Structure formats: C-alpha cells, structure tokens
From TrEMBL:
The keyword Ligase does not apply. It comes from the Bacteria. Keywords: Cell outer membrane, Membrane, Receptor, Signal. The keyword Signal applies. InterPro entries: Beta-barrel_TonB_sf (IPR036942), OMP_b-brl_3 (IPR041700). Residues 1-18 form the signal peptide. It is found in: Cell outer membrane. Residues 286-729 form the Outer membrane protein beta-barrel domain. This is TonB-dependent receptor.
Length: 753
C-alpha cells in the first residue's frame, strides 16, 4: 500500500497548481481502495505461490504445503511431480539442496510452513539451473528475519501399511551475531511389502510367476550447515550431509509356471547397506549494493552401496530338465566425486541481470561384481557375469544468462550452457569404451503482462539426460534364473528439447501447453527383451550329455531380460488447465488441475549390447519394436476446509486420477487415489491423521504386446493404503532467519546415484 501511495505522489507532483483539486480527489480515492495481496502469480520464468498470504499456510509442514501448491502433486507421499509428469528438483533460496530424495522429503515434512515466504514453480528451468531432461524446479524461499536466538522442530510419526513403520526426526536452527546454522536428523524403520504377478510369452509359450517381496529397512539421515558472516560483504559457509540405510534379510519369493505346469520356486535373500557423505565449502562476496555477487563452491561426495544375495531355485515337478540351481552375487558400488563452481551475478542500474559461471565435476565409480553358480555341489565363479567395471567422467560447464525488462509489459531472459563431457568405461579384461561429446544448451523466456488480469509467457530450454551411475554398472538383478533385469554400460546420453506456452487469468486460473522432443531416447521403464539361449545339455552334476554318436545334445532355454538402453525418439504434447482459489472468506481452498497428453514413441531395440555369450552358446534376441501413440489424461483435486473460526481444525480431501498411459514397455493401467486428512493445532503442537489411497487403487500394472504376438505383463501391488499419525512440536523463536543455504558444486552428480 505504501508503494502504491508513493507512486501516486510522484505522479501527481508534476501537475500544475490548477490541477491540485482534481488530483486531491484522486489521491483520496486511491487511499480508499483495499488492495488484496496476490497469492498466486506469474513472474518472469516462474509461477509464484505467496505462502505468507495463503489461508492454508499455518500449522502444516512444507511437504504438505507443496502438495497444495498449483502445478505440484504427489500421490505416494514420497515424490513430487510438476504438471503431473516432470520430476521436481528442490531448491531452497535459489540453491539446490544437497540431500538424497528420501532425506529431502523427510526434511520437507519436518520444516514448519510458517518458515516459508513463497514457493516458486519453474516448469522449464533456464541455463543457470543444474537439472537434466525435462525436470522442473521448485524453489522454496524462506522468510528473512535477523533476530538472534534459536528454534527447532521435533516430529514423531507412525505409519501403518502392510507393516507398521515408526520414525522420528527433528531440526534445529540458531543465529547469534555473525554465526548462524541449522541441523536436521531423521531415523526410522520400515518394511516394504510388494506382491508380484508376472506373465510373458508368445503364441506357443506361456510363463507365469507369482510371489512377494519383503524388504526391511533401518535408516538414519542427518546433516548440518554453518555460516559465518565475515563482514557485510563476505560470508563463508560449510555444510555436511550423510545417510545410512541398512536392508538385511530382504526376501523375494516367486513361484513359476510354464504352459500351465508348476515348474519351480525361486527364493532370493538379499542384504544391502547404503552410505554416503557429502561436504561443501562455500564463499560469497557481495560486489555492490544492488545485488551483484560472486559465489564459489568446492564439494566432495562419497557414496557406497554393498549388496550381496543368494538366489535358489527349487524344482516342483519330476521333469529331469528342471533341477535345483543356486547362485551367489555381490554387487558393490563406490562413487567418488570432486566438484567446484564459480558464479557471478551482475545487477545493473537499468534493472538488467547478467549471470555467468563455470562448473567442473570429476566422478569415478568402482563396481566389482562377483557372481558364483552351483556346479557339482560347489560354487564356481561365473566368468560371464563377474565384471569389474570402472567408470570415469569429467564434465566442464560454462553458462551465461541475460535478463532484463524490454518494455513496461515485456520481460525476457536468454541464456546458454555449454558442456564438455569426457568419459571412459572399462570392464576389466573384457571390453571398454571412450565417449567425448559437447553440448550447447540454449534457453529463452519471454513474459508478457497483457494487463492486470492476463499474463502470457513462452519458454524454451534444451537439456541432456545422462544415465544414472547404477544404470551403467553391468550387473543383473534376478527374479528367477531366466527372468532378470540387466544394466547397460553402453547407454548414450539423451537430448531433450522443451517448450512451453503459459497463460494465466486473474492470478487464479492457468493454462499450460507443453511440447517435448527427445533424441537418443531412453525408455521410461525397462525394455523387456525375450530370447533364447542354446547350449550343451548338462546332467545334475554339470557334465555335458552326449548322444549315441558322441555329439553334444543341445538344449534351448527361453529368457526374459529387462534392459536399460536407447531406442530412438519420442514426442510429447501436454495441456494443463488449473486453478487455485479460496472461497467463502478463505474457509474452503481449492487447487484443481487437469492434464491432457499425447505421446508418440518410435524406435526399436534389435540387439542386446550387453550380451556376451560364452563359447558353445548361441543367443537369439527377438527384436523389440516401439511404435506407440497414445492419448491420456490425469486430474488432481485438492481441498482444504477450515472447520473452526479459531483456525485450529482443518480437513483435507484430495483425489488423483490417471487414465491408461502408454510407455515404451507397454500400457500402464488406470490409477487413482483418494486421500483424507484431519489436522489439529494446539499452540506449538500440530497433530495430523492421514489416510492415503483409501481404496488401494494406486498400484502399478503394465501390459505390453509386440507385433509378433509376444507379450509381457506386470502387476506390482505395493499396498499403497497408508494410515499415518504424526505429532509435531515447534519450539523457540519461530521468526528466526535460517542460516544461508548453500549451493553444492556436485548437485547434478548426486541425482544420478
């Protein structure tokens, strides 16, 4: 309001004295106007949700607040999506978070919504953001208050799914003079239960498998951030984050049928441990009084996952070809990353902003997979599946952005990122590769404020999607001896070109039209390759069987191998219509959206690049043809109803629906989720009871059929219905400003673990 009056005063001061009476009337008129702050609005390349002005912001946590934010959705309580499709990368105060996805979600769930000033949704990020493919950015802007003191949050929750899963965590923040810091921790135990139904075959053969997987986990995550203000222009910060996860005695139990005949039972016992440590040193120098600054980071990231498993198959009929088999497997992965970056932001007097920077990442992975198989009663090393894979990658990035106001109504931002990638992969004593490639990744954003009620913007961005490090490790994960997933060290980086046209009306209603092209596309899910292996037939002791003429008797075995690989190109067109609005004096707050989509995938997988048959064996792969065109839709309906005038009781009623959607490996079945929640605020205490997916309808089903009649169907029921009871206690000075969040130099690498 003060800004409005100042503008009016400057405007009127230039008029002649003869206009004073008329001008005075105008001033009085302006003073009488009540201006309501906009809760949801378009600013440049982002949509801004003003949390501090929203009626639903009090008494909840940041994760629940994000689910109520326009364009953001979550149907599993573990992930966030933008426009129902793009993965969300979380930034805090324009700096990417350092935690892995699980620790990040828990941090968001333990952060009070009262700490949040606004949430920015960037559906197509510019060149300055370290994101891949078609990922979008959620930037959480914290409230700023320089009061000394401390505050914190303690939270306990109990989740009842198939098993009971308790957890607890907390966060602590402090500020004293030039020192500030924050820390967080979470510990919990949970057991995932999944039920599988697998079927595959062709017009002459049918294979069916039924079973379950119990995966118990114990987890601890934590970290801290310390910031020291050297003087008014310089700051130095250090951050550390860690995670430890233990999953021992995970059991996969599968019963197998072939052509309607019970054949065998496969039991896989697995022990796994995951650990990581991340360190970052940050320096910031303010170079003027209008916002120009230099920032630099040096980071180190260490990741280690140890997995050992014992896979047994027990015969369940008298067929002599169906015999007991077993294998041991050890699949370790070690990642070391060293990174650094320097960014300089230059603000000019005419309101323009320059951003230039350089980043460097060096990554080494060591994956020494050992596999033994049972032969003649002893476990003998399997040379075909024992692989020591060493991967090295160097990425140098240079980026430049320029943003300014072109006219009173038109603003623009243009940028480019140039990346040079040098990588080598070596499967010791077997094979290797070297890949050197450069990518120029331009971006453009134009925003036109037609008038107070209408806003139109256009955004273009190009990205690449590099394979995750674990996807490169040439190891297998077995369901049965002939049904398994296979990683692929020869995957190429995919190239993405994203465009969006966004229209907003009265800062409440919006339409988003998007188009994405992908070259050297990787499948959304695994490609199911069916084939046969013909090898000499062996007896129960592993000896080759000969016929009466002394010739080897050959046996042919069918297999189903799920592989990660490039296949061709994809095109995706989407239209999102949505609204965010409060009704009846903010008693009822709605956030609705409908997504309409058209996708086209074109390509083929004609061979398995990872195939290395042993001498004497012949492997035949059936070509996998991808020619998919599909229309799909999804809808998100979120409601928050204030039940009391004291604003201490809230009811949440949410619904999600997704139609059948095609992907490269088949068609995903209809999914829907109905969620309800009840929240009670008692001073500094918040008690929440939630039921997610009340009717158990948001599980995974896919059906795939090839032109030659071969098929592959999967049903993965993971018991999505959850009852969650949570108690949160906020203590200390809740207006305390948090420590300066720091951008780590190796953020892009962490997302690939």
């Amino acid at each position: 309001m003060k800004t409005q009056l100042l503008i009016a005063a400057l405007f009127f001061s230039g008029f002649a004295a003869a206009q004073q009476k008329k001008d005075s009337l105008k001033v009085n008129t302006i003073e009488a106007v009540t201006i309501r702050k906009q809760v949801f609005k378009k600013e440049g390349d982002r949509l801004v949700y003003d949390v501090a002005s929203s009626p639903i912001a009090k008494g909840t946590n940041t994760f629940n607040l994000l689910k109520q934010t326009p364009m953001i959705s979550s149907i599993d309580g573990k992930t966030l999506k933008i426009l129902g499709k793009s993965d969300a990368v979380i930034y805090i105060n324009n700096k990417k978070t350092n935690m892995d996805s699980e620790a990040l979600i828990e941090m968001l769930k333990s952060t009070p919504s009262e700490d949040i000033q606004k949430i920015e949704v960037i559906t197509v990020p510019g060149s300055e953001f370290q994101v891949e493919s078609k990922e979008g950015v959620i930037n959480i802007v914290m409230k700023k208050n320089r009061n000394n003191g401390y505050n914190g949050t303690m939270k306990m929750q109990n989740e009842q799914a198939y098993y009971n899963n308790p957890s607890a965590g907390g966060s602590f923040n402090f500020r004293q003079g030039k020192w500030s810091g924050n820390s967080n921790f979470r510990m919990g135990s949970w057991t995932d239960r999944q039920k599988y139904t697998l079927s595959n075959g062709d017009p002459t053969f049918r294979n069916e498998s039924y079973g379950y997987n119990d995966d118990p986990n114990k987890n601890f995550t934590g970290g801290f951030n310390i910031d020291y203000e050297i003087n008014r222009k310089q700051s130095l910060g250090f951050s550390y984050n860690m995670r430890y996860n233990k999953s021992f005695n995970s059991v996969l139990d599968i019963t197998n049928w072939q052509n309607g005949v019970l054949t065998n039972r496969t039991v896989n016992n697995e022990d796994a441990q995951t650990r990581y440590h991340s360190f970052n040193l940050n320096y910031e120098l303010k170079t003027d009084s209008i916002g120009s600054k230099l920032t630099s980071n040096v980071s180190y990231f260490w990741y280690n996952r140890d997995k050992v498993s014992f896979n047994e198959s027990f015969p369940l009929n008298s067929d002599p070809n169906n015999k007991y088999s077993a294998l041991h497997q050890s699949v370790p992965q070690i990642i070391n990353n060293y990174a650094g970056n320097i960014d300089y932001i230059k603000k000019t007097a005419n309101g323009a902003t320059w951003l230039t920077g350089v980043s460097y990442n060096h990554t080494e992975t060591d994956n020494d997979t050992q596999q033994d198989k049972l032969i003649n009663g002893d476990f003998i090393i399997d040379p075909n599946q024992t692989n020591h894979f060493i991967y090295k990658e160097n990425i140098l990035g240079i980026y430049l952005n320029y943003e300014r106001k072109l006219t009173e109504k038109l603003t623009g931002k243009i940028g480019a990122r140039y990346e040079m990638t040098r990588s080598t992969g070596d499967i010791v004593e077997k094979t290797g590769f070297e890949r050197n490639y450069n990518n120029l990744l331009p971006s453009l954003n134009l925003n036109y404020a037609i008038n107070a009620n209408h806003n139109l913007s256009y955004t273009f961005s190009s990205r690449i999607r590099r394979p995750r490090f674990w996807e490169l490790n040439p190891s297998r994960t077995y369901f049965t001896p002939t049904n398994y997933t296979q990683n692929n060290p020869f995957i190429l980086a995919a190239k993405y070109y994203n465009q969006e046209l966004n229209y907003m009306y009265k800062n409440a209603f919006y339409a988003n039209l998007s188009f994405t092209m992908v070259e050297d596309a990787m499948a959304t899910d695994l490609i199911p390759l069916q084939g046969t292996v013909t090898a000499p037939k062996k007896d129960a002791d592993g000896n080759i069987i000969y016929d009466g003429s002394g010739n080897q008797i050959m046996a042919t075995t069918k297999f189903l191998r799920y592989i990660r690989t490039n296949y061709g190109k994809s095109r995706e067109l989407g239209l999102t219509l949505g609204m965010n609005k409060s009704w009846f004096k903010d008693i009822w707050t709605t956030n609705y959206s409908v997504n309409l989509g058209y996708i086209a995938f074109k390509g083929a997988v004609l061979e398995d690049p990872t195939s290395m048959p042993v001498p004497g064996e012949t492997e035949i792969i059936e070509p996998y043809i991808i020619d998919v065109k599909n229309y799909n839709m999804s809808a998100t309906i979120n409601n928050v109803i204030r039940l009391s005038s004291k604003k201490d009781w809230f009811l949440g009623v949410n619904y999600f629906f997704a139609s059948k959607t095609a992907m490269e490996a088949g068609t995903i079945g209809v999914r829907q989720s109905f969620d309800i929640s009840l929240k009670k605020i008692i001073g500094d205490w918040t008690i929440v009871a939630e039921v997610n997916d009340l009717f158990n309808q948001s599980y995974y089903r896919v059906q795939g059929v090839q032109p030659n009649g071969s098929y592959n169907n999967i049903t993965n029921f993971y018991y999505p219905r959850l009852l969650n009871i949570g108690v949160t206690y906020n203590f200390g000075n809740q207006k305390l400003k948090k420590a300066r969040e720091m951008k780590s130099a190796n953020d892009a690498v962490k997302s690939r673990t």
